[in-house]
Design a protein that fits this description.
about 10% helix; globular; 3 helices; Metallo-beta-lactamase, Chain A; eight-stranded mixed beta sheet; mainly beta
Length: about 210
Amino acid sequence: MEIKWYGQACFLITTSNNTKLLTDPFDKLPYNLPDIPVDIVTVSHNHFDHNHHKAVKGQFKLYTKSGHYTEKDIVIDGIDTFHDDANGAKRGSNIVFKYTIDQLEVCHLGDLGHMLSEEQVKKLGHIDILLIPVGGIYTIDAKKAVKVIKQLNPSIIIPMHYGTKALENTNLELDRLDKFLKHAKMKIKEVDTLNITKDNIDEYAGIVVVDYEL
């Protein structure tokens, strides 16, 4: 599969059969959504920087709720979580999506705001690739992100939802990536696009920083 990051929590994941899945499309941010049709869109929660599916091209299937689904060659499992550490009292709910793609398990945590419960960890099961927010303030911060990584024990960690140069002139204050990398103390690779298979996953074990597409 191919994984590209478009900023914030938005990734374009393309399977070996060329099925295109887009996560958490945004509005009002200085990034650009992909200018191509997609087949599937998942939205973790109903905030402007995650739910702008109306701007996405294609006759896609939209998933915004927890549950078990199969669409084309992707199996999707949505699990209920919260956007904060107060059972949603501050920022509402959040869906964690797990995708089975090309014999690999990919987990997108959305705007997770708390440590996972034992039940949630059990529901998620084995994770190969974890897309995790690390910028704090609106989600888990760097320290909690490291703890969540230990809960799920993925092979590859892709950080998201952190402060970038593109966000410097906006009101969206997020911790920078360096803070997370300092706490994580793991091997780091940097790529423009991640091309990953069952056969080469060990080559990318650790943190993979995917540069955002503009």
